[in-house]
Amino acid sequence: MLHLLLADLPLSAPAFGRLLIEPGLPAATALCRQAVVLEQEAPREDAQAAWLTPSERWLLHALQLDGADTEQAPWARLAALADGVSDDFPDDQPLGLLTPAHLRLGRDSLSLTDPNALDLTVDEAQQLFAAVEPLFASAGWQLRWVTPLRWYVAHASLRDVVTAGVARAQGRSVAAWMPGGPVARPWRQLLTEVQMTWQHHDVNESREQRGRPDVNTLWIHGCGPLSPDWRSPMRLAEPDQVLSDPALEAALRGLALRPRAGALDRLHILDAHALLAADPVEGLRQLDAQLAAALQQAIGQDGGARLTLAGEQRWRTVQIRRPQSWKFWQRVELPSLFSDL
Fold first, then answer.
1. DSSP letters spanning 166-192
2. Partners of 306 in the β-ladder
3. Within 13 A of 300's CA, how many CA atoms are on the CB side?
4. What angle do CA 265, 7, 310 make, to 5 degrees?
5. Of 221, 241, 261, which marks where a domain is finished?
6. How far apart are CA 31 and CA 10, in angstroms?
7. CB proximity list for 230: less than 8 A, separation 6 or greater
8. Residue 93, burial from CB neighbour count under 10 angstroms (0-12, 13-18, 19+)
9. Please, which pLDDT band fits residue 326 given cuts at 50, 70 and 90?
10. Does the N-terminal peptide bond of residue 182 adopt cis geometry, omega within 30 degrees of 0?
11. Per the domain annotation, does 77 fall within a domain?
């Protein structure tokens, strides 16, 4: 069966609410007339403060990884499989992802900007990595560079550190989204040394001269554990799918390298954040076309699909099947399924 995840819907934005009415999602709506709600996340008072996005929480649920600690996702462990570095880190060693990023100083807070916008080159990233790797080694941390925006770090203290992903913290004051408490003290101390080392680094000096933002932090995330005997119930329908979050993209590619849990369901993600960023009107048209095409194909091949809508508060999953003419009385307007998300 195909599982479609419509991720990171900006439902609190008034402009998006208006777009859902006009032009709306006409092609997808026509295929969802007889949609049936299968399950949905219960409303939670801490939805805005939860460490994981609704999309991430649904992924943990769908991947049967939401048992012990639903505030931690094992994206580092899965991404390490996709990047071919998992053997560098024993299964019982806490592992996290590091993303070089820029913290922007506002009037009274620091906010995390989109790391993709840094356009960090391989040479720049390698120089920055070389400057701080001795700091990690001397403090007993294991550091590994893979891509400019994807590094790995391992240390025993990460076992109890709760973190937020880049997508969760981006554009917000980072004070509430950085690891806190005594368990995070080793990381905070090390991060301070990293920031001091990079402050006047040649790479940042050159970037500032070119009018580019400096790289002034490392964002740690994806530190959740992954049981060695866990078997994946899903794989990506398109292994080369590109997401706006490269760490999550790598993690989902890692599903193909885990032992299987019987017949695998297929997962396809429609990245609303990426589609709507530049031109919301055109982005919504593309979203409608892509969603309708995926549903039509799934209906033709399997007789239906499951569609999960993930907003800013929670997620909702509906069953889409081949329309039944005798159920003419059953009529669901797709935008109504977005309410309370």
1. HHHHBTSBGGGTS--SGGGHHHHHHHH
2. 3, 319
3. 6
4. 95
5. 221
6. 22
7. 64, 65, 258
8. middle
9. very low
10. no
11. no
Q: Does the structure show a pLDDT above 70 at 43?
A: yes
Tokens of 136: 């990690």
Confirm whether 173 is domain-assigned: yes
| Domain that residue 178 falls in | 86-221
Task: Please check whether residue 131 lies inside any domain of the structure.
Answer: yes
In a domain, 334, yes or no: yes
pLDDT at 6 over 70: yes
Residues 201 and 320 in one domain: no
Closest CA to 301 of 250, 265, 262: 265
d(CA 16, CA 12) in angstroms, rounded, equals: 8
pLDDT in tens, 65-112: 876 556 889 999 999 999 999 999 998 899 999 999 999 887 777 889
| 273 in the same domain as 209 | no
Q: How far is CA 161 from CA 45, 72, 183, 297, in A?
A: 22, 9, 6, 42
User: CA–CA distance from 197 to each of 143, 215, 275, 313, 322 (Å)?
Assistant: 16, 11, 37, 38, 59
